[in-house]
Structures are given as C-alpha cells and as structure tokens.
Design brief:
- This protein has helices at about 1-10, 30-45, 50-55, 55-60, 95-105, 110-120, 125-135, 170-180, 205-210, 225-235, 245-250, 255-260, 280-285, 305-320, 330-340, 385-395; strands at about 75-80, 85-90, 140, 160-165, 185-190, 215, 240, 265-270, 290-295, 300, 325-330, 350-355, 355-360, 365.
- Helices cover about 35% and strands about 15% of the residues.
- By secondary structure, the chain is an alpha/beta fold.
- The longest helix has 15 residues, at about 30-45.
- Helix 1 (about 1-10) packs across helix 2 (about 30-45) and helix 8 (about 170-180) packs across helix 14.
- The strands form four sheets. The chain has a six-stranded parallel β-sheet, with helices on both faces. A three-stranded antiparallel β-sheet has the order 1-2-3, with helices on both faces. Strands 12-13-14 form a three-stranded antiparallel β-sheet, with helices on one face.
- It contains 16 helices and 14 strands.
Length: about 400
C-alpha cells in the first residue's frame, strides 16, 4: 500500500510515539502527498528531492529522537485540558512570560508544571481564546480547519526568477530552498536586530535551507530602507512572507498590489491571512489532528514539527504554479488538514522484529527507515553579507 510504504520510507514513523515503546503509525497520507509533489517538481524542474524524506530530515541532521508528548525539538508539550488535550509551545524568549499571562501567575524558566495545572482546570476553548489574545502558540488539539489543496495547474520554469524571501525558521525557507534548487535566484531579507531565529540553531540544517542564497539586511524604520525594500520587492517574481500580513504592511508593502502587477506572493501563516493566531510546526500539526495515538489511545507528537515541511513543500508547488500574479494564502492548519482526508488502514501497526521496525498490514510488510539527511549545497551567507552587491546588481541605491 503506497501510503504505508511512503510513511515507512519517510523516517517520520521512528519519530512518532514514546521513547520507551515501539513507535506508532502517523495518520493520513502526508508522506504520500509530499512525495507526489516533489515527483511532480522533478518531472518539470531540476529539483531532485524526496518529499517523504524531507519530513524528517531536520531530525536526521540533529540526531533527534521521539519523545512522546514532548515534541522532538523539545519546545512543545501535549498536555490534558479539562475536556481534551492541548499543544503548547514555548519556543521564543517571550513565550515564558506569555505563558505566565495565560495562567495569570508568574512562572520561572520551567513553566510546564504550572501550565499543566492550569490547563487541567480549563476547557480547550478557553485556552484558544486566551492564546489568541496573547499571541501565544498554544491550541486545543483537533480543532477543525479547512483543507487546502495545491492547484491543478502546470508548472513554470524557475530559471531567471528572482525570489525575495522574508520568511524565517522552516516552512518559508524550505519553499525558498526548493525554488533555488529549481533554478531561481533567492534573496533572503532580514531586518537589523531581528535575524532569522534559525540562525541560532543547527548550522548544518540552516546551511541546507539557505546555502547558495544571498543575504540582505534593510532597515524599514528609515525612509531610505523602506524605499529599498519596495524596489527590491518590485523587482521580484516571487515574494515569500512567513509572518502575519500586518508585519510587511507595516513596512509599506502591499501584497495584493504586487500580485496585481504579476508577482506571485506566497503568504504562509498559522491559520490564514484573516487569522491572528500564531503557531509553529508542532502545535499547528497537533491542533489540527496530525498526532499519533499511543497504546492507551492518547495523543503523541507525529514527527518533528511536521506542519513546517508539509507547508514548505506545498508552498513551493504553489510558487511554481503556472498562475503568475497570484496571492496564495497558505495556511499551515489547512495544509495539515488536507493530509487527513484519506481513510487509514485499521490493520496496520508498527512492529519490532529481529531485523528492525516494520509496518505490518493486510497487504504485507513495509520496512521502516530511519530519518535520512541531505547535504547542504553550500554554506549559508552571514547576515547581510550580500546587501551592497545585491542591491547594486539590481540597480537599487543602498540606503
């Protein structure tokens, strides 16, 4: 069965479940969908990437392991609420204080016991309301969301394409990375004092996503910096934004106006451009039902921040759709939901054998692979290293 074979090949199975138990099978067909998209890209572009294996490659590079109701990366927890479960992230320096505001009590650098006690006394809807107001990446589990599907269109060439990437962390940079592999010129834009948070993470993984890209730093707090940003965006064929729309609007950039002139604008958000909810790969995946179930039928994390690579691959397909001039509203929640439509195989289970882990099902046995890393094509450039040369090459006066 291709869905089970793709999960077995992906490496995600080994990252799903408790560390002291046999892993469990993820739901849905995310690995199959990702492999279908990258196969489509390979048929039309120079991209040669296995979408199924992309789902677990960060864990492969880091040597991460499954941890049950603690995310593979360690920054998110699955915790019981008064009426279900919640996925709560504490990934940013400010999140500790926000968790204190959530529960109405001061917390220290290890807030989890206090947060767990508060959640156990409150329903998930109350968490969702307060987290939305606070801008906290925390959600009740299995919140309904609309499914999103890539368009049924052909692919255009990325050769000669200029991609301006404002995104950070994983989903948006993965999109930019795939466009770069397809032949596009990618310019990563950061602002002074706010580098991509992934720069503080694993160097090899950062190099994988950003190797070969140009790094530009511009200051939108000055009129000259905003002018240079506007001219850079005006030159772009594709713009990738990975924050809520108001952030780039605050820089004087208008996504719809750029799409109207023919630019493809990829807007990646937690739950859509009309939502103020924040989220990261682990909490968004869990909130929308992409969790494994342990032997007691209780949720465990599925893979490593799996909504991020899912969204990055889907976003790259949208960016190369033969529909230039589109404003794509890429909701991570919607992407996750789209992978959970296929019925599962009730007979399938992960089993430890003498030869290793396998997925047993009515049609046979699928050997389970470990997460597979890829090598970076080059080292990522230092923040702002290409500002002067890139602006000069594009005919933009340096602010």
């Amino acid at each position: 069965m291709s869905i089970l074979r793709d999960w077995a090949d992906s490496g995600v199975v080994t990252l799903t479940g408790h560390p002291d138990a046999v892993p469990v099978l993820p739901p849905g067909d995310a690995a199959t969908r990702m492999r279908m998209i990258t196969d489509e890209l390979a048929a039309a572009t120079p991209v040669r990437v296995d979408g199924a294996q992309v789902l677990a490659e960060r864990a492969a590079i880091r040597g991460s392991r499954r941890a049950g109701r603690v995310s593979v990366g360690g920054s998110c927890r699955l915790l019981p609420t008064a009426d279900g479960w919640a996925a709560v992230s504490c990934a940013r320096p400010d999140d500790v204080a926000l968790l204190g505001a959530l529960i109405g009590s001061a917390v220290d650098d290890d807030p989890w016991d206090a947060v767990a006690e508060w959640l156990a006394q409150h329903p998930g809807a109350h968490l969702d309301e307060r987290a939305g107001l606070l801008g906290l990446p925390a959600h009740s589990v299995a919140t309904a969301s609309a499914a999103a599907e890539p368009p049924a269109t052909g692919l255009r060439s990325a050769a000669g394409m200029l991609v301006v990437d404002f995104s950070a962390l994983w989903a948006g940079p993965l999109c930019a990375h795939l466009l770069g592999l397809a032949g596009a010129r990618v310019v990563k834009v950061e602002v002074p004092g706010r580098p991509d948070g992934a720069r503080r993470g694993d160097t090899t993984f950062y190099d994988l996503l950003h190797g070969g890209h140009e790094s530009v730093v511009l200051d939108p707090s000055t009129s000259a910096g905003r002018g240079a940003l506007a001219r850079l965006v005006a030159a772009a064929d594709v713009v990738i934004e990975g924050s809520r729309p108001r952030a780039l609007r605050g820089f004087g950039l208008d996504a719809q106006a750029e799409a109207d002139r023919g630019c493809t604008w990829i807007s990646i958000t937690a739950a859509g451009r009309d939502s103020d909810r924040l989220g990261f790969g682990d909490d968004i995946a869990a909130a929308n039902g992409l969790v494994g179930l342990d032997a007691d039928g209780l949720p465990v994390f599925c893979g490593d921040a799996i909504a991020d690579p899912l969204t990055g691959v889907v976003a790259a397909r949208l960016a190369l759709a033969d529909l230039p001039g589109a404003l794509w509203d890429v909701s991570m929640a919607g992407v996750v939901a789209s992978t959970l439509q296929a019925p599962g195989d009730a007979s399938a289970q992960v089993v430890q054998t003498g030869a290793g882990l396998v997925i047993e099902h009515e049609g046979g046995v699928e050997p389970v692979a470990a997460p597979t890393p890829r090598r970076p094509v080059a080292s990522a450039h230092a923040m702002g290293a290409d500002t002067e040369a890139t602006l000069r090459d594009l005919g933009i006066a340096r602010p």
